[in-house]
C-alpha cells in the first residue's frame, strides 16, 4: 500500500471515529471504551504512516536506518518523561479531588519510576 493511501485511509477512519465521539457527546450518550481505544489505535497508525518512509517508494526516513533509530531513541526518552509527569499530575489531582490516593494509579506511578532505570540496567548489562 502506498504511503499516501495509508495516510488517507487512517486519517479518514480517525476522523470518522472522532466525529462519532463528538456526536455522542453532543447527543448526551455514553462514550464506549472501544471507541476511545479505536481513536488511539487509528491515531497511532496515522502518525506512524506520516512519520516513516516507505522502502518500496524510496521516500522519507526509514525506521531501521541510523537516523530512524536515533529518532526512535530520542522520542522514547521524551515520551517516557512526558508520561511520567502526566501520571504524577494524575496522582496529585486524584489526591486533591478525592482526599485519598487510588492504589492502582499509585502502582502505575511507581512502575514509571522503576521501568526506565531497569531497562537501562538491562541494556547496559548487554554491553558489559
In N-to-C order, the SSE pattern is HHHH
Kindly estimate the percentage of residues that lie in beta strands according to DSSP.
under 5%
What level of helicity do the residues show?
Answer: over 70%
Low-confidence runs: none
Going by helix content, strand content and strand pairing, the class is: mainly alpha
Q: Helical element count?
A: 4
What is the mean predicted local confidence, pLDDT? 89
Number of discrete domains: 2
Radius of gyration: 19 Å
Biggest sheet features: none
The tally of strands reads 0
What is the first-to-last residue Cα distance?
Answer: 42 Å
What best-fitting shape do the alpha-carbon axes yield?
A: flat
Give structural notes.
By secondary structure, this protein is mainly α. The protein folds into two domains: 1-60; 64-128. It is built from four helices and no strands. It has helices at residues 3-27, 33-51, 66-98, 103-127. α1 (3-27) packs antiparallel against α2 and α3 packs antiparallel against α4 (103-127).
Concise summary:
The chain has 128 residues and is mainly α.
Notable characteristics:
128 residues, mainly alpha, 4 helices
What order do the helices and strands come in, and which of them pair?
Elements: H1 3-27, H2 33-51, H3 66-98, H4 103-127
